[in-house]
Amino acid sequence: MKITGAILAGGKSSRMKFNKALAVISGEPVFKIILDKFQLNFDETITISNEPEIYRDFGAVIYSDIYPGLGPVAGIHSALFNARYDRVFVMGCDMPFMNMELVSFLSDHLQDYDCVVPMLDNKLQPLSALYSKSCLPVLTGCLENDKLKLIRIFEELNHLVIPEMQLAQFGDPREIFMNVNDQTALVLAQQIAGRYL
Ligand SMILES: Nc1nc2c(ncn2[C@@H]2O[C@H](COP(=O)(O)OP(=O)(O)OP(=O)(O)O)[C@@H](O)[C@H]2O)c(=O)[nH]1
User: Fold this and answer.
1) Ligand 1: which atom is nearest the Cα of residue 75?
2) How far is the CA of 154 from the centre of ligand 1 (A)?
3) ipTM score assigned to the predicted complex
4) Which residues belong to any copy of the MobA-like NTP transferase domain (predicted)?
5) Count of CB atoms within 10 A of residue 57's CB?
């Protein structure tokens, strides 16, 4: 089954105080690290951002939000809408250490579900989850009805949760799922990058 990898890069980076996708780890912007990994592993890679000029120079294929200004639910919606393939791995632009075998594992479990979503620290991880295009009507409904909290999409989606115990076979979930979204996380990511990049 072919998979589209979608990088969401339409946020405000208010915690980092500069565009976190451009934070440098091991000499490269986090966005470039993710883009390279996605292009190597997925059948198609797309980036969802309303600022295409930032990412075009990296050679990214960019689509904007169809519902601009509504946050990450709109980013996932645009990713699924624009993806060439039915299966879409959607990830934030601040996760340099995602494990691609883990993504294959999520994909292997999609058959009977609209999406497969990891759970870490008792929280679903919608921004590192595998979605089918069958999610689109639910996402459109959420956006049209002002239901913009990411976690609420799962009230209506037929989803499979992958518990932390199963994620651990791919490495330390706290590192694999690390969000480099503030200065503290950036320093930590720079310290452990050698093990991943
Ligand atoms: N396409 C798109 N992506 C978004 C949008 N809002 C957030 N994202 C992305 O979703 C991921 C998670 O976003 P957050 O970390 O919760 O928010 P953020 O605005 O990027 O950062 P903070 O302002 O620090 O919360 C990041 O990769 C963002 O770039 C949006 O409106 N559209």
Assistant:
1) 1
2) 18
3) 0.98
4) 5-149
5) 8
